[in-house]
Amino acid sequence: MTPPAEPGATGAHTPSHEPTGPSGTPHAARTPEEPTIVSAPPQPFGAEAPSVDCIADSAGGLTFDLDAPGAADAQGAWSAALVLRRRGSEDETEEVRLPLAPDGGGRLRAVLPSTVALAEGRWDVYCACADAEPRRLTPGLADLRSLVDRRPGPSTSPLAVRIPYATKHGNLSVRSWLRAPHAEAGDLLLDATGMTLEGRLYRVADPAAWLGGAVLEARLRRDPGVVRTAPVAPAKAEGADDQDFTCTLPFEELTGAWQGGMDVWDLWLRGADGEETARVARILDDVVDKKQIFAYPAQPVDAAYAPAQAGPYYTADNDLALRVDERPPVAG
Amino acid sequence: MHISFLIHNAYGIGGTIRTTYNLAGTLAEHHDVEIVSVFRHREEPVFAPSPKVRLRHLVDLRKGTPGYEGDDPEYERPATVFPSAEGRYKQYSALTDRRIAAHLRGLDCDVVVGTRPGLNVHIAQQARHGVARVGQEHLTLGTHSAPLKLVLRTQYPRLDAVTTVTEADAATYRKLMRLPGVRVEAVPNSVPAPALPPADGTGKWVVAAGRLAPAKRYDLLIKAFEKVVAERPDWRLRIYGAGAERAKLRALIDKRGLYNHIYLMGPATPLDPEWVKGSIGVVTSSLESFGMTIVEAMRSGLPVVSTDCPHGPGEIIEDGVDGLLVPTGKVDAIAAGLLKLINDDELRRGMGRAALTNSARFDPAEVAGRYEALFTGLASRSGLRGSLHRTRGALLSSALRTSDRSRSALRKAKTA
User: Fold this and answer.
1) Does one domain contain both B89 and B231?
2) A21 to chain B, minimum CA–CA distance in Å?
3) Coil, helix or strand for B162?
4) Which of A239, B67, B263, B274 is the S-S candidate for B60 at Cβ 3.0 to 4.6 Å?
5) Interface contact B265, partner A, CB < 8 A
6) A308 has which bridge partners?
7) How many other CB atoms are found less than 10 A from the CB of residue A290?
8) In this structure, are B272 and B391 located in the same domain?
9) How does DSSP classify residue B169?
10) Nearest CA in chain B to A147
């Protein structure tokens, strides 16, 4: 067994108060799109929120099972609803109400089918009972195994991804993406000259036609007029089909315009017709926040301005981006 | 029976806390059970105890609350009863000495259970007569410092029972300590059945979980998984946990170009939903006092490939039946063990089913049953026999202390 890692392990008479999370990547503090909207503060002590177990299905649907002692058989249950509200939304109507029904085992169940559209964003989850003020809910067990290595089937309707998660205040929220078309990022291969992206295209009628002649676009975030492109090719790996693609973006394309500081390039696919685009993102699994987990080493690159480094990272929305930055001096 | 647990801090996170809650909750189905926490630093415990278990504290460290005692002058003075050789000595004080003593002298129960060496010493010295005294060892005797071992040698004879989490450690206690009349028993940690259906063994993921600490040897795991990837690039590895080694492990993954195959997931509580996303569990430690994560993975239906390190893994895994034991510290052996299960779907799923069945012996009901039998035996010892045993224990204690002192004096004289 692990030696007990109880709080208070460090220092005399100064027990620490919270377990610490994973340490940040070297760039974490400097990327510009940290979420600025945070969830509501926790309920005051004593107002214990009911806990909810979530089960995800591979089609994008979610089932919520609510421990509500007394509520399952009480009359209030007839009007009970699970309410999802999109965070930061000005529009009061941006709310989804799902009926909560007794599941026969003393709990209440609500179902969010994949066919009910949720706009992209963070949706806070509440329980509304009769006329009482809706209450936030706390996350219980989340069975998200069917989201791991998700491979949705062919369709042209928007791809729905919903991942339930615990906010930093310990409340239940659901992260939603709704995309068509969608370019899912897979393995990223890095060397000193550039990045090769292996990806898979979803939600277009004819993937082979869409990808034939498609390009990867890198758009400079500080100046949207600056765009660099690289050709997209069908993937040659064993088992690949006409949705799979590969693309190599040379770093020198990005370092030419670099004048110090940090440049961020957002990555998109542009289809053969030159009109339709798809954001490159990684959303087809159970990991709600990729940035710290899907981390990649920055590669040293030569730039006219100064020694630089370049490397990919996932944004707070799990979109793929590249950054070019000054190379830190070598220690020693 | 009335059973009282004494624990360092029941409001935090840790293996001892979790396993104490499990045990107390199960015993509380049939007995009157309380958990007494020396410290309380937050309003609510991180893990929720069973509603049938009473939870209270002796020293209040909730900052900004009226009851806060961290500014008590006694809290600044060092402890004299709590042994200075104990790892948590710096957190103990004259105040804890006094509070714990008062608590133990006023005990109104049949059995008192200490959960770490320093608290077991308190119990050995201060528990009221007529109360059976049990000291739990959640780590191992071998990993304690020499000065602490010396303290335990002199104090533990006054206990009625010492429990370890492995047979291997119980054997060490019997060999290295003179504990006449003290029952030394191995009782494993308990792990409840997960509330989720078990893993189905189809996902191409290997899962490891534990603090990112040197003893876990995740560096070996990363190197072993590099060999796995060379043969089976379709399989990937998730490592759950936080810890001081994170930056080093991140650098190792990056240097070897394994960032598409090995992921540092950060901490996850509870772990059950994460185990079931995998098909194989892996442990590469150089030392495991018990091996809680092995049992957790098995209860989720995963076969575990583990190093055969001291003390727990070999007592949990039946090699080749419900998992694989591989030599400690050997990258090639870890990789070969993983590949054996990766390359044989039938073998892997069969072992997963066996793991699910065989790990049922760690169910809290089974483990609590063993404690219950031990406690019942101790509580029914006649008062006379009990006090005779303790008188003898006390005499032995002072005799040992004298001989230990003279030995260290001798050693000092030699080195001088």
Assistant:
1) no
2) 7
3) strand
4) B67
5) yes
6) A301, A326
7) 22
8) no
9) H
10) B277
Which residue in B266, B277, B288 is closest to A22 by CB distance?
Answer: B266
Q: Using alpha carbons, select from B179, B160, B173, B165 the residue that is nearest to residue B137.
A: B165
Nearest CA-CA distance, residue A307 and chain B, Å:
20
Average per-residue pLDDT for chain A: 83
Q: Please indicate, yes or no, if residue B195 is contained in any of the structural domains.
A: no
Nearest to B277 by CA among B254, B259, B257, B297: B297
Q: How far is CA B159 from CA A198, B122, B367, in A?
A: 64, 10, 21
The last residue of a domain, from among B361, B379, B396: B361
Chain B segment 339-378 residues within 8 A of A by beta carbon are none
Q: Are residues B382 and B397 in the same domain?
A: yes
Residues B183, B164 share a domain: yes
> Which positions of chain B have pLDDT values less than 50?
382, 384-385, 406-416
Examine the domain organization and report whether B41 and B174 are in the same domain.
yes
Q: Could you tell me if B34 and B136 lie in one domain?
A: yes
Q: Is residue B196 part of a domain?
A: no
| pLDDT tens digit sequence for A19-72 | 333 333 333 333 334 344 444 444 333 346 788 999 999 888 999 999 765 554
Single-letter code of the amino acid located at B100:
I
With beta carbons less than 8 A apart as the criterion, state whether A109 and A63 touch: yes
Is A145–B276 a contact, with Cβ atoms under 8 angstroms apart? yes
B61–A15 C-beta distance less than 8 A: yes
A65 in Cβ contact with A153 (< 8 Å): no
In a domain, B197, yes or no: no
B179 and B55 inside one domain: yes
| Contact in structure between B42 and B67 (CB atoms under 8 Å) | no
What residues of chain B, 280 to 319, have a C-beta less than 8 Å from chain A? 288-293, 312
- B238 CB burial (10 A radius; 0-12, 13-18, 19+): buried
> Which of B16, B19, B204 is most worth mutating to test chain A (most A CB atoms within 10 A of its CB)?
B16
> Do residue B260 and residue A23 have CB atoms under 8 angstroms apart?
no
Q: Report the sign of the C-alpha dihedral through residues B320, B323, B329, B331, in that order.
A: positive
Domains of chain A by start residue, with CATH: 51-177 (2.60.40), 182-326 (2.60.40)
Q: Hey, what are B58's tokens?
A: 């002796």
Question: Which of B342, B361, B380 is a domain's end point?
Answer: B361
Residue pair B114/B135 in contact (Cβ under 8 Å)? The answer is yes
Q: Strand A172-179 relative to strand A159-166: parallel, antiparallel, unpaired?
A: antiparallel
* Euclidean distance between CA atoms A119 and B205, whole angstroms: 31
* Contact at CB, A15 and B254, closer than 8 angstroms: no
Structural domain boundaries enclosing B238: 205-361
Same-domain pairing of B297 and B347: yes
pTM of the predicted model as reported, rounded to 2 decimal places = 0.85
Nearest residue, CB atoms, B39 vs list A15, A21, A141:
A15
CA dist., res. A141 & res. A127, Å (int): 17
Give the model confidence (pLDDT) of B385-415 as tens digits: 455 566 666 666 655 555 555 444 444 444 4
ipTM: 0.85
How far away is chain A from the Cα of B43, in angstroms, using its nearest Cα? Answer: 8
Number of structural domains found in chain B: 2
Successive 10-residue mean pLDDT values, chain A, 332 residues: 39 37 36 42 50 92 82 56 88 84 88 92 90 86 96 92 94 96 97 96 95 96 94 90 96 90 96 93 97 96 92 97 91 55
Q: What is the C-alpha separation between A170 and B122, in angstroms, rounded?
A: 37
Interface test with A, best of B60, B259, B309 (most A CBs within 10 A): B259
In a domain, B200, yes or no: no
Question: The domain that contains B150 carries what CATH number?
Answer: 3.40.50.2000
Starting at the earlier edge strand, list the strands of the sheet with A138-143. Answer: A101-102, A108-112, A62-66, A51-56, A138-143
**pLDDT number for residue B49:** 86
